[in-house]
Structures are given as structure tokens and as C-alpha cells.
Amino acid sequence: MPIDVTLTTAAPHEVVADLLAVPVFKDRVFGPGVEGVDAALGGGLDEFMAETAFEGKPGQTLAVPTQGRLGAKAVVLVGLGDPAELTVDGLRRAAAAVAKQAAKASTVATTLLDAAPEGADRHDAAQAVAEGVVLGSYRFLRYKREPQPSRLERVLVLGRGGARVRAALDRGVAVAGAVAWARDMTNEPSAAKSPADFAEAVKKLMRGRGVKVTVLDEQALRTERLEGLLGVGQGSERPPRLVRLAYEPDGARGTLALVGKGVVFDSGGLSIKPTSGMEWMKTDMAGAAAVVATMSVLQELGVRTRVLGFVPLAENMPSGSAMRVGDVLTYRNGRTVEVLNTDAEGRLILADALCLAAEAEPDAIVDIATLTGACMVALGDKIAGLMGSHDGWVQQVRDAADRAGESVWPLPLPKEYRKLLDSEVADLRNIGTGTYGGAITAALFLEEFTGSVPWAHVDIAGPSRASSDDGYVSKGATGVGVRTFVELVSRFRRPTGPQGSGERGAAAKARGSRRAGTRAS
Ligand code: BES
Ligand code: MN
Ligand code: ZN
Fold it and tell me: Which of 232, 372, 431, 467 to mutate to test the pocket of ligand 1 (most atoms within 8 A of CB)?
């Protein structure tokens, strides 16, 4: 049941709620509403904070006894740290801390919105507060004998604001709901999400959401010559699928294609992973989940961009029918690929989906995938890698991620590394020669299937999962990418200007010339 988040102008010390959450800055500086609470309690809040070593650090909380002197049954102080360093994402985290404190309450009131950082847009702040409380309440409980869900039902956001602030709160609830769907799907054990199950779940989710869903079964995959999906999926008893999604609003401004890796379990195939490497491989469809979740809220958010989704789904298993090392796949764009490691399967199924996306001639393509361990070596497990074929488009994705509060960092796509993908027998090999630069060679492989459409690639092998609870992130699947993609489609601009990316684009510019043949064509 979705949490109800409403704006109200009630005074903090009078509002009726199970819990009132008020912010305190670094060095115990009172935030909005604390003064009134302190007065109603007869003073002494300062002393109480000092006695309990509460300093107002980010993430810190402190329950305060109220002796029935306030409208709220209980009060909790929430640390926000240094106001000069506070960001909208900090507010999102604080809102999650409030939700965690309120897990046993049904109604919580908070003045957090009025603590929004100076210079921040109040609507962005409102959206972040709503996202924080909903995501902070998230738990994956389907398989618990005695599930203990958060009891939070209602959040009263105290402060001024009209219809637009209310709309921003609604937007935050919708976006967080989509993130929660992606987390649920990604946390789900592989046994319960075969490619066919996943496709069914997508159909069900999209009902009444203004998105057309087409599912290509095995037969259709053969007709469409989607050999990467067929090859990767052939070792599993549960055949692959490709889900095509289309959101086509009237008077759309431009078309964007989203592509998400959907490997429902990655054992590595015959190039089998060690046990420890498989522990998290039920989450190897996090990219697919992010694409689907994003598309599920486009209508509700009134997005004016036409958005196409391409979601390849397969299970990577070893068996007598599995794809062999050395097998060659022929793609619909004519490229042949020698499979030298069946564990580099994500790029093989993404290649099919990218071909289809490019054929639809969108203004731009972005893909999202739990693609390489190498990206985690480069950036750690909290930052996604970002690469692409068009500087302006890559920048647009980066800006969207920044606005959404999701961490991405660009990696270069140097043309000189392309030869690491040369094969003896085919056009390409599916793993780079040598040990290094695996995130980059994977992206260079993908680029071969993007035609002449501006393309960006987000490698979420790291941030798709969290090893512990942290702010609005809970241990397990994070639903990363959904917030970035919602921002991206909401403010989509057709990429303009030359292709070329990273060092390649920069180098070309420095030479004052636009290099032909930057793109594979
Ligand atoms: N799904 C994995 C990547 C991955 C690793 C995601 C760890 C999340 C956490 C991908 O299919 C894979 O196995 N990649 C290989 C590529 C290699 C064989 C070239 C890798 O990164 O080791
Ligand atoms: Mn793999
Ligand atoms: Zn994989």
C-alpha cells in the first residue's frame, strides 16, 4: 500500500501525529520547528541533546520525551549536519532516517522540507523528501515467515506551498514506487523470475499505464534473428524473451530508446563462475528492472517524450545444450561475434536489443546494465560507469544523474582499444584481449550495435546492489537508474552536434577537425 504524503500548514507543536520529526543542524543548531517544540516542552532541549551526545550529524536521530505536551505523541530530532554542505540528496537521506524512526508509527509529521538547502529548488526538495520517506520504508519481506513491514501510512509535510509543491510530493511518491518495484523484482530469487515470468510481470505492471507491451517468445526471436539472446539462453530450460515497450504521448518532443540488461541468473554458462561470484547473480537483471520501472510511471508523470523500451531477458546456464566457447553468433546488423567467454553474456544479449533500438531510429539510445566487474574495480560499488558515442548525449545523462542524486562517473571510450576486440575468425570477440580495461572494452563492443544513433551506456555492476542499509538504500537491490532515467526522459533534448566521446571526442576537437568514422556504421 503506497504511503500517503501530504502538505499541511499546521504548526509543528500542534500537529496531531504519532511522531513529529524535526531537523537539527551541526553543533545542535535548531532547524525549522525545533524552537516551538522546545518552548512547548518548557525548554531544556539543548541540555538534553548535550547529555545524550546528539550533535546533529547527518543520519543521527534522537527520540525526545514529550510528556503529552505536544499534539504529536512523540518527537524525534533528525541530524542534517552543516547547512552549508546540505544537498537535496542529504534531505532525501534525512527523510529516509525519519521513515526508519517512524516504522512503528502510522502517521509522522515533519518540518524537513523547510530545511531545504539554500538555493535548492523547493519542488526538487519536496520530491526528494517524498522519495526519502517511501524508500526509507522499503523492505523485501516476501519470503519471511513473520514479515515486519513498516507501519508508516501517512506523512504530513509541514510547510508552505501550493499545487506545485503538492505535485512534487506526488511525483516523489510515484518515482519511489517505481524504484521499489525495481528493487522487488531484482531481490526476487531467480527461480521465481524466468524470462517468461519476467515478461508476464511486465505486462501486468503496465496495465492502465499507457505503455504498449510486446513480448517476443523463442519462435519470434528466431524469426527476428536475435542470435545473442538465443545463444545465451540456450543452456537454460527456461527460454529467453525480448520485451518491447512503447510510450507514445500525443505531440511528443523527440524519441528516446531505453535498453536494459535482463539476465535473470548469471551462472557464467560453461565459463562458469565460482560459488562466491554467483551469490548475487539473481540481480543481473537490474538494468531491465530499471527500464521497466521507469516506463511504468511516464504517463503518471505526464512525460512528453516518446520512449521506447527494449528489454532482453535470458538465463545464462551451463548444460549439454549451452552455447560453447568458440561458437560464432551472427547479428541482425551483419556483425559476427566469436564467443570466447560465455560469462561475457550481457553484451551478447544487449547487442540484439541495441540493433532493434537503432533500427527504430530514435533521437538517442541509453542502455543500463550490470555489465562488468571491471567497472567496480575502477569506480567501487557505489558509482556507475558512464560511456557513450556522443559527448553531448553522455553529458545529458550525467546531468540527469546529478539532478536525481545518483552517482555516475564518465570513463573514456578510446578508439585505439577497439583492436582488443578483433577476432581471428569473426568480426569481433566478446571479451577484450588482455587483462585490463574490461568496462571500456565491453562498452566498445556495445557501440558496434548502435548504428549512427547517439548512444550512452551506464554500467551499474557496482551500485545495483548494496552490502548494507545506508540512508534511503536498503541492503540488497537498490533500484539504481530509475531516478536518473525519470529525470532524463522528463527533460529530454535531442542531442545535437558531432559524435565522438571522451578522449576521442576531445582529441578530435583539439585537432580542430571532426573525425569521420568515429562511429561504426
Ligand atoms: N553480470 C556480470 C558482471 C557483474 C559482476 C555484475 C559482479 C555484478 C557484480 C557479467 O555478466 C560478467 O560476468 N562479466 C564478466 C566479464 C568478463 C568475463 C569479460 C566480468 O566482469 O568478470
Ligand atoms: Mn556474466
Ligand atoms: Zn551478467
Answer: 372
What's at 495, amino acid-wise? P
Q: How far apart are CA 92 and CA 317, in angstroms?
A: 39
Q: At the topology level of CATH, where does 193-520 sit?
A: Aminopeptidase (3.40.630)
Distance 371 CA to ligand 3 centre (A): 6
Specify the CATH number for 4-176; select among 3.40.50.300, 3.40.50.720, 3.40.220.10, 3.30.1360.140.
Answer: 3.40.220.10
Distance from chain centroid for Cα 323: 31
Residue closest via CA to ligand 1's atom 7 equals 373
Q: 106: which 3 cell numbers? A: 502510522
Provide the grid cell at 364: 538517442
| 347 annotated active-site | yes
3-state helix, strand, coil in the chain (%, to 5): 35, 20, 40
| 8 A C-beta contact, residue 37 and residue 27 | no
Write the pLDDT tens digit of every residue in 282-308.
Answer: 999 999 999 999 999 999 999 999 999
Q: Using DSSP, how many helices (H) and how many strands (E) does the chain show? A: 16, 21
Q: Which residues of the chain have pLDDT under 50?
A: 502-503, 505-521
- Any idea where the domains of the chain sit in the sequence? 4-176, 193-520
- What are the tens digits of pLDDT across the range 108-145? 999 999 999 999 999 999 999 999 999 999 999 999 99
Start-end of H helices in 380-421: 391-404
Question: Which of 91, 99, 159, 95 has the alpha carbon at shortest distance from 125?
Answer: 91
Residue 45 CA to residue 17 CA, distance in Å, equals 20
- Selecting among 225, 273, 494, 509, the annotated active-site residue is 273
How much of the chain, in percent, has pLDDT values that exceed 90? 94
Distance 380 CA to ligand 1 centre (A): 14
List the beta bridge partners of residue 390.
500
Q: Which amino acid is at 120?
A: A
H-run or E-run covering 319: none
C-alpha atoms less than 13 angstroms from C-alpha of 160 in its C-beta half-sphere: 2
Atom 16 of ligand 1: nearest residue by CA position: 344
Q: Are the beta carbons of 266 and 284 closer than 8 angstroms?
A: yes
Nearest to 110 by CA among 22, 10, 3: 22
C-alpha 323/C-alpha 345 separation (Å) is: 10
Pocket-forming residues, ligand 1, beta carbon under 6 Å: 266, 280, 284, 341, 343-346, 370-374, 431, 438, 461
Given this model, what pLDDT does residue 510 score? 46
Within 10 Å of residue 356's Cβ, how many Cβ atoms?
A: 21
Q: What is the DSSP letter of 390?
A: B
Select from 408, 487, 482 the least CA-distant residue to 177.
482
Coil, helix or strand at residue 333: coil
